[in-house]
Write a structure and sequence with these properties.
Number of helices: 16
CATH superfamily of one domain: PPM-type phosphatase domain
Helix content: 40-55%
CATH architecture of one domain: 4-Layer Sandwich
Strand content: 15-25%
Radius of gyration: 35 Å
Number of strands: 22
Shape: flat
Length: about 650
Amino acid sequence: MKRYPIAFKLTFLILSCALVIVAAIVAYNYVSSRAIILRQAEDNSRLLVAGTAGRIDSVLSGVQKVAENVAFSLEDATLTKQEILDLNRRVLANNPEIYGMAIAFEPYFLQHDKLYFAPYHYRSGGRIGFTMLGDAKYRYFYMDWYQIPKELGRSAWTEPYFDEGGGGVPMATYSVPFYRTVDGRAVFAGVVTADISLSWLQQLVGSVRLYDSGYAFLLSRHGTFITHPDKALVMNQTIFSLAEERGSNELRELGQRMLSGEAAFTPVGTLLAPTESYMFNDRLKYAGWSLGVVFPRDEMLADVFRLSRSMVVIGAVGFVLLVLVTVGIARRITHPLRELSASAREIASGNLDLMLPDKRANDEVGDLADSFKYMKTSLKEFIHDLTATTAAKERIESELRIAREIQMGILPKLFPAFPDRREFEVFASIEPAKEVGGDLYDFFFVDETHFCFLVGDVSGKGVPAAFFMAVTKTLLKVVSERGLDPGEILTRVNADLSSENESCMFVTLFLAILDIETGETRYANAGHNPPIFLPCGGEPELVPPLGEPVAGIMEGMRYSTRTMTFKPGDLLFVYTDGVTEAMNPDSELFGEERLTRLLAGESEPFAPKLVKDVGAAIHDFARGAEQSDDITMLAMQFMGKCTP
């Protein structure tokens, strides 16, 4: 069969040049008109978003000011319990935009015999309802609206949530911490909250319309849908969980751009609507929420389409006679190309299961058909493998990165930790073996003269150990601040950890409380490595182990308290087994003996330098070998004139 090239066939289609000219005119008209319509749509949507955001921000701003004023009033320690209740109710009654208000005090702060004191007034059926928050099922001081302002030391909006302990409606809460002066220093006393019901917000955003089927939606600062025409998404999904559900990287990237706070007019395809659409988004001034307005491309460009169709019709009339003469040849030559072109568009839109037309022509069209078949098969395999691999990798990396940031964020890491304290020097470091680990350390003042410091090592590695570590640290902090002996602290923490511990995880702990005036140190040890004591001018020595088991396994276990006395210049080095069990490429352990020699060689021991020197020695010893366990160190030095 004789082969004819496409160039030879196209010589019979000279008349198509005229069609190209008409098509160019129509295309130019379409592109120009489309650009004008897009600019107008962007301006309209910008004004619409700005107006809606302004209305929302005005309400949020008023709510913030009310809550901050109440928090300022509560710094007056002379207010009685009844006056606090009256203040809360009166403020709510005078501010209709607020759904509910709570004044939540720290446990045992207002009433020394009461764990809970958190009056909550809210609107219910045209009147003001009242409840007292706090019971065994609703420990408000563990809630986000309480913990976030307490830990950050500043006001904050919570993520939208459905509150079952107070109003029983979907809401967002603005929390303001307040403080009172105790013994000449400001002490955290509690949190004032102002709740806004999301119902009015959903109605306001739901009323926004652009073109016939356009709509608006609102995201929280973490991407949760606050409002959306699809009620199933509201308060149930984030834009990232929706992207994961659909397997859409484009939707995930769109959510990241929206939460970045940058105002943008963006084509979003079919990510947010059944048809091709555009979106304008901007960030609210308050609360960190993001507002987006979606409108369909077809409705926006309807006039452009109509004009283009009219021009096509006009041009087609002029070509009717020419088409009648050349239609037979043109159809025979271009029909295979049109079929392949249509198939290519289907493949480009994602339809990789399309059956390609069977072309037997021995020319470039046949070669092109074979190439399309090969391309379709290769693309299908590649996209399937890439989608599965990328989704799994991104999900795991994202979760581990967030877990590591959360874990490292709860450990104190600013040194010097107490620059105004000259009585002691404390320094600590942690290096997880994986993205997240199970080691922990902490230090804090129990009262004005007693300083608590601790080191622990949770069994296992990875995310489970990190969760158990976070629970342990929280329990230790809460129990230690009650002024108990170290042994009693570990006894109570063990009771909480071992209760219903189906995973059988455990933690080794060394906890000590130093009297910074006398140097007397009380300590307890739950199966942890014996610390090393460096007396000023003397040789290192191990603190004798107490022989008591790890925490979290045996219920009813009681831990004892021992006492030692620091002299000025004395230093206690506490570490986890990741230090002594560090391994080099020759499978040799760093060892307790090597650690003791290293500490004995310190000419002038100083807590920060000591920890850094040990860390550097471990790094040099490992010589690049993979770290097998978390490495955590804490050095506590009682300061003063060193007298050998």
